[in-house]
Design brief:
CATH topology of the largest domain: D-amino Acid Aminotransferase, Chain A, domain 1
Radius of gyration: 20 Å
CATH class of the largest domain: Alpha Beta
Oligomer: single chain
Number of domains: 3
CATH architecture of the largest domain: 2-Layer Sandwich
Number of strands: 17
């Protein structure tokens, strides 16, 4: 199969790395001339809403998929007869936080209380309803902590509205959650569902820095049941992530990602079948692979800088993935997976990692 991928970043790169053993070939579309997935296939360089390039991508491939959601759903919708998975409805809903929250409400998936904001009066009403602080977010184009502010007082209100723009925003009640969790799930073209163990996640300034697999987590059954509702409602095909806050014994859905997800990178070495391979299996109509974890696993992102790989690779159970991207503050440049036979052994290996590379704690 020749698969067209909208986007040429690290997720597209890892999809290609998972696909070559299965005989896939790839054609990428990305506006960046140096997109890190380009060396792994053929490339089209241009805008995501370029109808001629989109038509070429569709005509020259057997199927289309995407590696992130900040692409033009309207442009894709204008093309007739394209074979696309995940479905366009999932992409369209995800592109607007208000639509995303409304979908959660439709499916009785608990979420943080929210209100749409199109100016100072709407923000004042949200503050009146929720109290302070509130979280103000753009309704689209937000990722890795971008496009959101915590507003704590009237001065923050004015500054946040100025920085984010006064229209097409959403205000959410600030939740002092205990944990951030995510479920990586996959649904095949035949309707089969599979779920990876919960990931417990740690963020810094909105950027994921660490994810740990929790196969025995008590929230597993509840989280998978809620995620399954989303898969079925969207008639989804492919890998999807649903992120939660755990708060006072309940799971509150934060957002979903209609694609492979950073918190599931540990599945490459840490699961029977990675999230990337299962995404490809799903969109190609192949049977899904096992999502069982292979022991205890943790993942760390490399943000802004790449550590010297030699000391890392001397450590037992460590696997390094570097994306070939130019360093830049706040940019995801790679990730490190640590695998062990037990939680105790994993903790010991992570401690050795921190002791040997003390700066690693802050750069990855």
């Amino acid at each position: 199969m020749r698969l067209g991928i909208l986007g040429g970043g690290q997720l597209a790169r890892m999809l290609a790395l998972a696909g070559y053993p299965l005989g896939f070939r790839f054609l990428f579309l990305d506006p960046a001339p140096d997109a890190c997935a380009f060396p792994l296939g053929e490339a089209l360089h241009g805008a995501y809403d370029d109808l001629d390039l989109l038509a070429q991508l569709a005509n020259d491939t057997d199927k289309l998929t995407f590696e992130f959601e900040n692409i033009s759903a309207a442009a894709l919708q204008s093309l007739s007869g394209i074979a696309l998975d995940p479905p366009l409805e999932a992409l369209s809903i995800k592109k607007d936080r208000n639509s995303e929250k409304a979908l959660f409400q439709e499916l009785a998936i608990p979420t943080t209380p929210f209100r749409t904001v199109d100016g100072p009066e709407d923000l004042a009403a949200a503050v009146q309803a929720f109290g302070r602080p509130v979280v103000l977010k753009t309704r689209s184009q937000g990722y890795d902590g971008k496009g959101q502010r915590i507003v704590r007082d009237a001065n923050d209100d004015a500054r946040a509205l100025r920085e984010l723009g006064e229209h097409r925003l959403i205000a959410e009640r600030f939740i002092p959650f205990e944990r951030e969790l995510s479920v990586i799930a996959v649904r095949g073209s035949d309707g089969a569902q599979a779920f990876y163990p919960i990931s417990e996640n740690t963020h810094d300034n909105g950027i994921l820095v660490r994810a740990e697999s929790r196969p025995l987590d008590p929230m597993t059954e509840r989280a998978c049941a809620l995620t399954g509702r989303l898969l079925e409602r969207l008639q989804y095909v492919g890998t999807l992530a649903l992120e939660f806050f755990e708060y006072e014994g309940e799971l509150l859905a934060n957002e979903f990602a209609p694609r492979v997800h950073n918190s599931g990178h540990w599945t490459i070495e840490g699961a029977e079948t990675s999230q990337f391979e299962n995404h490809l299996r799903a969109v190609a109509g192949m049977p899904l692979g096992s999502t069982a974890a292979l022991g205890a696993v943790a993942m760390r992102n490399c943000i802004g800088t790449i550590p010297d790989p030699a000391p890392l690779l001397r450590l037992e159970g460590v696997h390094a993935h570097f994306y070939g991207k130019a360093p830049r503050p706040g940019r995801k440049l790679g990730h490190i997976t640590v695998r062990a036979r037990s939680e105790d052994e994993l903790a010991a290996r992570l401690a050795k990692l921190d002791a040997q590379l003390p700066s690693f704690r802050f750069s990855c």
